[in-house]
Design a protein that fits this description.
alpha+beta; SMP_LBD; MMM1_dom; lipid-binding; transport; transmembrane helix
Length: about 350
């Protein structure tokens, strides 16, 4: 009986010891093992890296080429039955951009300085004296785009283009004064004062826009192209004043010459088959182009009376004064007369 109990105790102890040894070996070699000391895990790691590289090469495969028909079918656009769009949302965005441009141009006389540098630059003819700008008006209205439709390109088969009608009714004016110099047979033989004012009253036409992918142009970037159809309409108002004592006002030949030069300038640049190109920036999200909206830190009416503490400068700033200053600046902006209101249409130009 004692021999049976002793053999049972030996088996039980041996079994428990073997379980403990197996648990210790599992913890040591499978949980706390160092892969740098074992050559076998190196081979497995290298195999895993190779498989990962293979997977990356298969993921970054080139997509199948997209045709015009494929793009139209994926966007559910039928060029034959789709109704033209009004582009009301686009008109609002363009109006905001033009309003900001006009505001920036009026700041510190920026547009006046820029125009003076351009018209009095090195390309100015020798028979013209210094050109003085007497009148500038950037207008008050905005262009209206409408009737937008997608059509296949007539110049490049397989391409798509967007055509939209544009209409602008405004008064955009540039007035200058100068003198015509006659330098033959000797310098300054005669001097003829000239005053000109050119106003754009109406412009309407059809604008064509298309994209050129980076694989198809030399700039290696997506390019936006735009042009005008040859049936555009441009209405101008040209006022002229020639002479010092006996003045000739609104000479028809001068008006015809200026109108023909403006039409030729447009035809040589943007009228089909000529077009303009704009290289588009990369639209891929980047860290350096990331911005964040600053939350409004304005408080309630109680803090306006007590004042607010501004972090970083260790000073107290009165919220009431800040509010009064902003209100005063807004009121001054509202009372400022628009540029068109201050523009005077002179019947004659003063002699220089």
């Amino acid at each position: 009986m004692e021999e049976c109990s002793w053999s049972f105790l030996q088996g039980f102890l041996i079994g428990q010891l073997s379980v403990i040894i197996m648990i210790c070996a599992f913890i040591k070699y499978f949980i706390f093992s160092d892969p740098s000391t074992d050559p076998k895990p190196r081979k497995s790691a290298s195999r895993k890296n190779k498989t990962l590289h293979k997977k990356k090469s298969t993921v970054l495969r080139n997509p199948p080429p997209l045709t015009t028909a494929t793009i139209l079918s994926k966007t559910y656009y039928n060029v034959h039955s789709h109704q033209p769009e009004s582009l009301d949302w686009f008109n609002v965005l363009i109006a905001q951009a033009i309003a900001q441009f006009r505001d920036d141009a009026r700041t510190d006389g920026a547009i006046l300085d820029s125009l003076n540098k351009v018209i009095n630059g090195p390309n100015k003819p020798d028979f013209l004296d210094t050109i003085k700008i007497t009148e500038i008006s950037l207008g008050e209205d905005f262009p209206i785009f409408s009737n937008c439709r997608i059509t296949p390109s007539s110049e490049e088969p397989g391409k798509l283009q967007a055509k939209m009608d544009i209409d602008l009714s405004d008064v955009i004016t540039l007035g200058v004064e100068t003198r015509l110099l006659l330098n033959y047979p000797k310098p300054l033989v005669a001097v003829l004062p000239v005053g000109l004012s050119v106003s754009i009253l109406r412009f309407s036409g059809t604008l064509s826009i298309s994209f050129i992918p980076s694989q198809e142009n030399t700039s290696n970037s997506t390019t936006l192209t735009f042009s005008l159809l040859d049936d555009y309409r441009l209405e101008l108002s040209v006022r002229s004043l020639v002479g010092s004592r006996s003045r000739l006002q609104d000479v028809p030949k001068i008006a015809q010459l200026i109108e023909s030069r403006i039409h030729a300038w447009i035809d040589e640049r943007v009228v089909e088959p000529k077009f303009q190109q704009i290289v588009l920036p990369s639209l891929w999200p980047r860290k350096k182009t990331t911005r964040e909206h600053v939350p409004d830190t304005s408080t309630d009416s109680d803090s306006v009376d007590k004042g607010s503490y501004r972090e970083g400068d260790g000073s107290m700033r009165s919220s009431g004064n800040a509010g009064f200053g902003s209100h005063r600046s807004n009121s001054m902006r509202q009372r400022r007369p628009p540029l068109m209101a201050t523009m005077h249409h002179h019947d004659s130009y003063p002699a220089p």
